[in-house]
Each structure stands twice: as C-alpha cells, then as structure tokens.
Specification:
Layout: H1 10-13, E1 16-18, H2 22-40, H3 44-49, E2 52-58, H4 60-63, H5 65-68, H6 70-78, H7 88-93, E3 102-106, E4 109-113, E5 118-120, E6 132-139, E7 142-151, E8 157-159, H8 179-189, H9 193-205, H10 209-232, H11 247-255, H12 263-280, E9 284-286, H13 296-306, H14 312-332, H15 337-340, H16 342-361, H17 367-379, H18 397-415, H19 427-440
Parallel strand pairs: 2-5
Antiparallel strand pairs: 1-9, 2-6, 3-4, 6-7, 7-8
Helix pairs in contact: 2-6, 9-14, 10-12, 10-13, 11-12, 12-13, 12-18, 13-16, 13-18, 14-16, 16-17, 16-18, 17-18, 17-19
Length: 460
C-alpha cells in the first residue's frame, strides 16, 4: 500500500468560484472566511479589546495581488462570502472606492476594514510557500490573535500549525500515489479506471454514484456557462492593459468558415478564450485545475459536447480521467504557478485535457494511451514561465489556454495513433522532471511579474 496515497476529491480539484486566479482569489477568500469563523470563537474578552483587522500579503500574493484582486477576495471572505455563491459583479465593486470601509463582525462589535489595513509586503518572509498571507486581530500595535495561511494553487489552502491529515485516516478502496501504482491497482483488481476513481470518490465524500455523477454534470454546466457567457460578452477586460475580448470575434469567424478545415481549430480557440476571458473579468469559472488554466478543459469539453456529440456518461468518464492526472501532478509536483511556473497550470490542464479526450474516444478506457497523452501534454510545457503582464491574468494567460487546449488535442492524436506502447517516458518520470524544473526555475518567472513578458508592460 502507498505510504502517502492520494485522497483528494474530484470536487476539490474542480472548484467553482470567481476568477481571475484560484491561488489569488479563491484561496485567499477561503482563508479569510476561515479567519472570520475563528474570530467568532475567540473569548469575549479578546473580542472586546479588538480595534482593527490587518492583512499582510507576501510573495506572489504581494507581487501580483492587486492585479489578481486578492485584496477584494479577502474582504469578501471576511464579509462571509463563499467562492461558489459570490456575485462576481458585487466582488468587482469591493474596494473600488478607497474611502469605503467594510464592517467585519468580531463578537458583539463591528470592526471596519479598508484598503489601509491590507498590506502588500515587499520584504522577504520566511515561509514554506510562495503565496503566504497573515491575518491579524489587533489593538493598536498589539496583536491579539493571528493566523498564517498558504495558498498552494487551485484554491487549496493550508493553515500554519494545522495538523496534517493522516493519509491512513482517509480510507479509499484503491489507494495509489503514482501512475505505476494506479495501473497496478487496475491490474490486480481487474477493474476499469472509471470504476476505481468512482469508488474512491464515493469513499472520500460519502456520496452515492448518482450524487457524484450529478455533481460532475453540475461542474460541466458551470464550465459551459462560462464558455457561453464569454462567447456573448464583448468589450474591454478590467485592468490597465485595456485588452479587448477576442472570443466573440473568433466564434463569429468560425461560424462563417464551416466548410474550411480551419474552422475546427477556430471554434476550439474561441471556446477556450471565452472561458478564459470570463475568468480574467472576474466571472464564475471552474478551477481545472486552477482559475488561470480554466479555459483549457471547459473549451475541450464544450467542443466534445457540441462537435463530437458525446453523451453525458462519456463526458463524465473523460472528467474522471482528467481528474486522475490532476491528482498525480498535484500530489507529486504542484499545480501552482507560484511554485511551478505556467507548466504547473497550463501544463497540467493540457495533460488533463489530453486524458479527457483520450478517455472519451475509447469505450474501454485503456490506461496506456491515457497515460501517454498526459505525459506528452506535460512534456511539451516543461519550463514554461508564469509572467503575467501587470499581474493580470490576461497576457499571456488567455491565449495560453487556447494553446494548451490545442496541444492537448495533438497529444491525444499522438497517443491514440496506435503507438502508445512505444512511449519511452512515463507520466511518473515527467512529473518528477516537472517538479525538479519548478524547483530550479528562477523565482522571477513564477507569478511575480518581475521578468519575461511581464517586462513588456510599458509597450501595452
């Protein structure tokens, strides 16, 4: 049995929430909401002394937090908002007027929070993760209570000092930590990938099979709503770049080229740009596995539904295969742009998308081509930097979603050409390389906007 098996739910990987960055919006919102709940449990004498709440942001949260809306997300969480039910228009209005403050309940009193209490720290902070936030309840200069949180990508957060979950305390019927172990479980138990993933999900969440399928359908619906909204919405995206939305233009162009062999790719590009532009606008999207990469799989699943006409069961099976790849990368490397660069986000999404397409195309669900497709998807994103201009998830992020989807489709074609058994590099091997590459990559290229294309900001 693996010493540290994967115990992540599919619905922790595919989370619904506002864009533009899961590590900068969904994660901080969840952390702030957690802090709000902990404030409510403090002794009354501590609550009564409080005069202020301060938020300190470090690493990438400080470097690009303004462009990503981290400050708004934290205010929203402290106000009691949750990612899936947040009104994106209301979220965008927070902190628009610097003179407006927001009442945060602490015991029987309300403490006003404004932009002056949110500190984008530029000093180096001794932390095990790049995205660190410290929330403090204070009386003047005195700290009455504080918590430190880490946003580790895809909306996942860790609270400092929180006991690590004992892998043995979360029991799944088919434990695995690597692709090799996953394939071994399939072999010795003589079950399909769909059956294994469904059984594990049911054990982790106490959902029935019907409930898991219903939630998968809801996730797909959220993805496709983002695509449809993006295909309709025109105009300029928020932020100083003043980037014009392209998805409606491409979609209109594709519809007029139905007889051209290029129309297929233009449709796919339009769908991916549509969801990604909605994310950049702060709309509701699905982390797949992150918000910054939330155009790849929605675009591919929309294509699969409306062009390949796959039915619901086939789309669900593809989503399970995509989740398995996301689990393996998150468990053995990282899906965070601040840890891995863009290969952690778009690279993982492309690999997941390739697995999705491969599973949908084969009724049996043979694991070999699924692994090959995912490996190819990651291999050709190795070393990709995360260098957003101005800290906005716009350039190069939006087009990278489209490029990641096209690479996913090509990885699917290569893996299903009948030569999957000839693949020399295993998925486990490429994930190890991915982790090492992320470790060796200069911090400047990991979501700080201090290098690469981010230096082109003056030309925009």
């Amino acid at each position: 049995m693996p010493t540290n098996p994967i115990t992540t739910s599919i619905f922790d990987l595919f989370k619904v929430g506002p864009g533009p960055s899961s590590s900068h919006t969904i994660g901080p919102m969840k952390a702030a909401f957690d802090f709000r709940q902990r404030l409510a449990q403090l002794p009354p004498e501590t609550q009564q002394q409080a005069t202020a709440i301060h938020v300190h942001l470090y690493g990438s949260l400080s470097a690009t937090g303004k462009g990503h809306g981290t400050d708004r997300a934290i205010v929203a969480g402290l106000l009691g908002w949750q990612p899936e039910t947040t009104d994106p228009d209301a979220l965008l209005k927070l902190l628009r007027d610097g003179s407006v403050t927001y009442p945060i309940p602490v015991g029987d009193q309300l403490i006003e929070l404004g932009p002056q209490q949110i500190h984008f720290e530029r000093i180096r902070y001794d932390s095990p993760y790049h995205n660190t936030m410290v929330l403090r309840l204070a009386n003047g200069e005195q700290t009455l209570y504080s918590e430190e949180y880490y946003s580790i990508g895809g909306g996942f957060i860790i609270r400092k000092g929180e006991p690590e979950i004992d892998p043995n305390s979360l029991s799944v019927p088919y434990p695995y930590a690597t692709m090799a172990e996953l394939k071994n479980q399939l072999k010795i138990n003589k079950i399909s990938l769909d059956e294994l993933l469904m059984a594990n999900e049911m054990a982790l969440t106490n959902r029935t099979k019907a409930e898991v399928n219903q939630r998968l359908d809801q996730i797909l619906d959220f993805m496709h709503k983002a695509v449809r909204r993006g295909l309709r919405h025109k105009g300029i995206l928020p932020g100083s770049i003043k980037l014009t939305r392209k998805a409606p233009i491409l979609f209109h162009q594709a519809k007029g080229m139905s007889q051209s062999s290029d129309s297929f790719l233009i449709f796919l590009n339009a769908y991916c740009l549509a969801a990604s532009e909605e994310n950049a606008a702060g709309g509701i999207v699905v982390t797949a596995p992150t918000s910054g990469a939330s155009g790849v799989i929605p675009g591919l699943t929309y294509l699969a539904k409306h062009h390949f006409h796959y039915d619901r069961p086939t789309l669900r099976a593809g989503m399970l295969a995509a989740a398995a790849i996301g689990f393996l990368v998150k468990h053995n490397a990282s899906i965070s742009g601040a840890e891995m660069g863009c290969m952690g986000e778009i690279g993982t999404a492309s690999a997941m998308g390739a697995a999705f397409l491969t599973r949908c195309a084969q009724p049996i669900g043979d694991i070999a081509p699924i692994e090959a497709a995912a490996e190819i998807g990651i291999e050709h994103h190795l070393g990709m930097t995360c260098d957003p201009i101005g800290g906005y998830v716009q350039i190069p992020c939006i087009e990278r979603n489209a490029m990641g989807a096209v690479k996913a489709y090509n990885a699917f074609l290569l893996a299903t050409s009948g030569a999957a058994s000839f693949q020399k590099i295993s998925l486990d091997a490429v994930v190890k390389v991915m982790k090492a590459t992320g470790r060796d990559m200069s911090t400047k290229y990991k979501e700080t906007s201090e290098a690469g294309l981010a230096l082109s900001a003056t030309e925009c």
